[in-house]
Specification:
This protein has 297 residues and is α/β, with parallel strands linked by helices. The chain is built from 8 helices and 11 strands. Helix 6 runs antiparallel to helix 7 and helix 6 packs across helix 8. The longest helix has 18 residues.
């Protein structure tokens, strides 16, 4: 353990395997797993999602492992938000006093391959996207904003985002998204954000004042949509939801609003899961987990 506490790995005579991790703990020095994956894992998933990421990286947890969150306290969100968050990580919770049978099949939804998270400014969309991949190893964080010279406020924003990411994640600052999506064997991707990608694309095409450049923008967004549709990687993308209020006063503002709306619509149509974040609350627009009943229901 990387914190005080005792973990228990139990194997039944028939070969079924169980792992329990105490609250606030994750495996320490886990470079490989000796033996088959565990059938049941109980851990503090709300406080230490990285513990599950380490177990997955070592092969100790696979798609067939029943992952149950325990030690749930007042820091956890209430139902049904708790069930939604755990399901996004491939896990579940059960009421106190439940008897768990190792090896029993449980209905936990598959983690969606493509998730689009929409929201306005400071709506919590980036935090929601990061939370959805917090229990997965080797995530590549794709930052499309790049760096800016002589802009301390922007530097502070970038630094805050970096500090929030798990230490095992890798960051790539690029707007070249198609090759990343086309890699069939890469780790999960988190793209933040598509609004900045579109800004870069329109800048490169000089489309702000030249309507004849729009076909080039549309070709690039079509290529991105195609790569999103065919990707085999687990990917979560963040995008701004704009245009719900006053019509922009400038032609460039109206153009960006329209093009981003079209891009969001195209990618949403090719996503298994679409979320809209409002004031820190994630509202499923395409409710992948609607059929899953919350614990105790």
């Amino acid at each position: 353990m990387d914190a005080p506490g005792t973990g228990y790995a139990v194997e039944a005579p028939g070969g079924l395997r169980l792992l329990y991790l105490p609250p606030g703990c994750a495996p320490a020095g886990l470079s490989g797993h000796d033996g088959p994956p565990y059938d049941l894992v109980l851990l503090d998933l709300i406080g230490r999602p990285d513990a599950l990421a380490r177990l997955r990286a070592a092969g100790a947890v696979t798609r067939t492992t029943d992952v149950v969150a325990v030690h749930i306290d007042h820091h956890a969100p209430p139902e049904p938000e708790l069930t939604r968050r755990l399901a996004a990580l491939g896990a579940r919770a059960v009421p106190d006093g439940t008897t768990l049978a190792v090896g029993d099949y449980q209905q936990v939804p598959e983690v969606p391959r493509r998730t689009l998270v929409l929201g306005g400014a400071r709506s919590g969309k980036s935090a929601e996207a990061e939370r959805r991949l917090a229990a997965f190893p080797g995530v590549v964080y794709v930052a499309t904003g790049g760096t800016r010279t002589d802009d301390p406020e922007w530097d502070l924003r970038v630094a805050q985002h970096r500090e929030r990411r798990p230490p095992g994640w890798r960051t790539e600052e690029t707007c070249d998204l198609v090759p990343l999506l086309a890699d069939p064997d890469g780790p999960p991707l988190l793209i933040d954000c598509l609004g900045l990608w579109l800004t870069h694309t329109m800048d490169a095409a000089d489309a702000w004042s030249d309507p004849t450049a729009l076909p080039d923008v549309h070709a690039r967004t079509a290529a991105l949509t195609s790569a999103w549709r065919t990707t085999r990687r687990t990917v979560v993308a963040v995008s701004n939801e704009v245009g719900s209020g006053v019509v922009p006063a400038t032609a460039s503002g109206r153009l960006f609003r329209d093009e981003l709306g079209r891009l969001n619509t195209a990618l949403a149509a090719e996503s298994e899961h679409v979320l809209l974040t409002i004031a820190g609350n994630a509202i499923p627009l395409r409710p992948l987990f609607a059929a899953l009943s919350p614990p105790g229901a």
